[in-house]
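#struct-pred

JT: dropping the chains for the assembly here, can someone run the whole complex?
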Amino acid sequence: MTNSLQALLQKLPEPNSDTGDWLERLRSDALKIISSRDYPSTKEESWKYTSLHDLRKNDYLIADERNTGALLKKPYSRDDFLEADKLHLVFINGFFQPNLSTDELLENGIKIRPTKTKKADEKCNLETILKADLSETFSALNILTLCDSLLIEVEKNRKIEKVIKLILIGESSEPLLKSLRIIVKMNENSHARVVEEYRSHDKDAGLTNVVTNLRLGQNSTLFHHRLQMESMNTTHIGKIDAQVDSGASLYSDSIVMGSKLSRVDIDVSLSGRAAYCRLNGLFTGINDQHIDHHTTIRHLVGETHSDELYRGILDDNSRGIFNGKVVVSADAQKISARQASNNLLLSKLAEIDTKPELEIYADDVKCAHGATVGQLDETALFYLRSRGLNYKDARALLIYAFAEKVIESIPLPALRQLLENKFLGHNQMSEFIQQG
Amino acid sequence: MLEISDLHVDVDGKEILSGINLTVKPGETHAIMGPNGSGKSTLSHVIAGREGYTVSQGEIVFNGKSLVDLEPEERAGEGVFLAFQYPIEIAGVNNVYMLKAALNGIRNYRGEKELTSVEFLKLVKSKVKAVGLDESLLNRQVNSGFSGGEKKRNEIFQLSVLEPMLAVLDETDSGLDIDALKAVSDGVNKLRDASRSFVVITHYQRLLDYIVPDYVHVLAKGKIIKTGDKELARTLESKGYDWLTDGQESAA
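RK: done, full complex below.
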């Protein structure tokens, strides 16, 4: 019997490997890899807690340019997305919308690559980047079903002052598979800040499959904030694959509030001396949401450093998974790796599975990890209520207090404020903090 | 203002208060003293409405209204305030934000208009000096990293902003050095007026040198066994509680 992945693949046109186009070649390789596979099952260790049962049941339509905007409630205008000090790029159902996006693309080193482009892009060596993770089912599927891909290349010594904000919207009445590829290449000593914001129409029940490749050249700095707020009917599969060269720093946040099922894999290689990454995460689950983060930090050489903080807040019968792996290669001496996973369970039925995984092959290292699972502090709740806050506000404030540790580390005020709003409604705390 | 009659309170099925009678009139300050485990803190928590304290018998009436079935925030709205023995640290929540949410919660309860941030900050600035609170504490996280003295001052600062009609101070003197004790007492004394009442719960007479009470009650084994004026506190300081509790036992 044909499994659901194969049923999906049958909807694809046959890749043409004779054209000489490297992307077509890559497609044909990808197809070979997954043509005998099914979606990952819970028998695989890294999918142990995350069943793709619902995903298998869905008969997805592969997004193409014809079904973009099938369920637009109202036409968008560029003004809907404009924000001061930001370069914004809007994608709807997987495809770039130039008329809704900023004009200042090329001058800031931003290229959109429609999938059908035949021209080889030698300078950035996209092929090598795209090839790297082809063995993984969802990455191979991503290549095979790719909508648009986006390349942000920041030239040497350049600092992009404006925040680059990608707004990726799902808006289809059909269960649509949208595959996107985002590549950020930071050349030596460059600096940029990128936000990936996923949203969708309430009724959207699609599958988003995004791979983000981050390449940080020597002494570059990248802030990368991933914000997932898709509707509660969607499935979201995300992957960040990052390589950080010597002296470079990656600051990454993964914030997940949306989707019925969300899986984000983050894999960071610290490949040069004094490379640094900070991975932070914040996720909130309600109803029967299922939110899974698998992170891997690879200290490939000595004197590399990493910090990781994930906080999960789970209500109703939602479930969270955090698997944080740290691998220290042999000879990667004098590294430091700190990891913390803190979780707040708001109901008896909510569940968290948190697991640190350390693989250390060097001997002169500093590794620390800790995981906590707790509930709302009843005494603190009483304290706030005795001051006059009603139960709902007191509870919201304590939940926010728990999330704040991750939120406060985000250097973008607009994003902090958005999150604060999500937790506290319209009473903003930041107005006081700014006064101080 | 506050009328507690024949109050019996259970905690985890065990009776802690066994028939308390206490009447506090507007403008009065009552001290409640007693040995450890006598039920002092239970009394303060049951007035403020903490969960887990079951009133099995009796009444707590505040301005003619029974408090027993009200939620803690409703009691705050009615004008009750409890200064905690151990103020809670809430990292991640700005002190002023919390207080604004509290004041507006109370105003909502009373059907009054919420204060805007500008109005609120003006109010706060005027109050902060009165309590001798370092203004920088305002923008810190609630009690987080505060010294013992700062925490207690913060309680009194909250009291000064929320302006309750009845304030219950639960061992506000514990953990304070003499300077902090004076500062906290000064803050309290400035808030005393003809309409506001205080119930001051303390283990030691020392606090009552600074916050001079109109009445002193001795609580032992869940009952008020003696009531007197401030001189009673001095007697307790020199003689301890034994002469009272022993007497009670032999009389029983």
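JT: nice. Chain A touches chain B at residues 377-380, 382-391, 393-394, 397-398, 400-405, 408, 427, 429, 431-433, 435-436 (CB under 8 Å). Chain A is about 20% helix and 40% strand.
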